[in-house]
Amino acid sequence: MSTPNPYAAPRAPVADAADAPRNFLPTGRAVPAARGWSWIAEGWELFRRQPGAWIALIIVALLIFIGMAFIPVLGSLAGMVLTPVFTGGIFVACREQDQGRPFSVSHLFAGFRERFGTLLSIGFIYLGISIAVILVVAVVTGAGMWTLLGSSTDPETIAGMGLTVVLAGLILCALLLPVFMALWFAPALAMFHQQGPAEAMKASFIACLKTIVPFLVYSVIALLLALIASIPFGLGWLVLGPVMAASLYTSYRDIFFD
Predict the structure, then answer these.
(1) Inter-residue contact 247 to 254 (CB < 8 Å)
(2) Fewer beta carbons below 10 Å: N end or C end of the chain?
(3) If we measure between CA atoms, which residue out of 78, 81, 57 comes closest to residue 69?
(4) What is the DSSP secondary structure assignment for residue 106, as one 8-state letter?
(5) Which one-letter DSSP state was computed for residue 24?
(6) 164/160 Cα distance (integer angstroms)
(7) 0.85 exceeded by the pTM?
(8) How many angstroms separate the CA atoms of 220 and 234, rounded?
């Protein structure tokens, strides 16, 4: 019978280590740049567990937003307001799968059952700030508001604006970037940690700011994968779409827990 080494470091059972609670960090933490790729890789791991359910979920979400887009003006506005609600459902689906439970398409609508008011408020804040930014850019550059919103489909109108549209588009992207940063994790923080709309958006912005380099890596890789997915008649998006949706959760899990 062997005698335990009294000088050896204590070892916890594997099961206990796996089930050990992780500390929630309200404003996230900085992570290495390489994590930008890991979020996508971990998103793929979630997707391949239930690819059929994931593809069905993304198709249903796409059809809903396409349907809203057919409603002039109001459909686009409703789509922006409801984006955090549906994103909250995707976070719930990922959490269920991450904790070993199967998920279904019905999880997409979890945001309508839980924290709906908070998620809707986030959507209205997102809409209000976005419209304000678009108005400012339209006034400064002289570009038409509907052109910036993509509602102007007249090729002659767009071509006539020329460099003005390009400049307005660049300024618009730069000003909307902080808005997207505030929106990125807000649904998860509202759903899982009962944060209010402003608190969740502020925490999301700070977390994205702390991880700006990993997100740059993430964006470059996502762009390359998007180009590849678009080549075979866009069919690659049936895989890339769910993977990128799942990467929302994997990035949240990595940044907001130690």
Answers:
(1) no
(2) N
(3) 78
(4) G
(5) B
(6) 9
(7) no
(8) 19
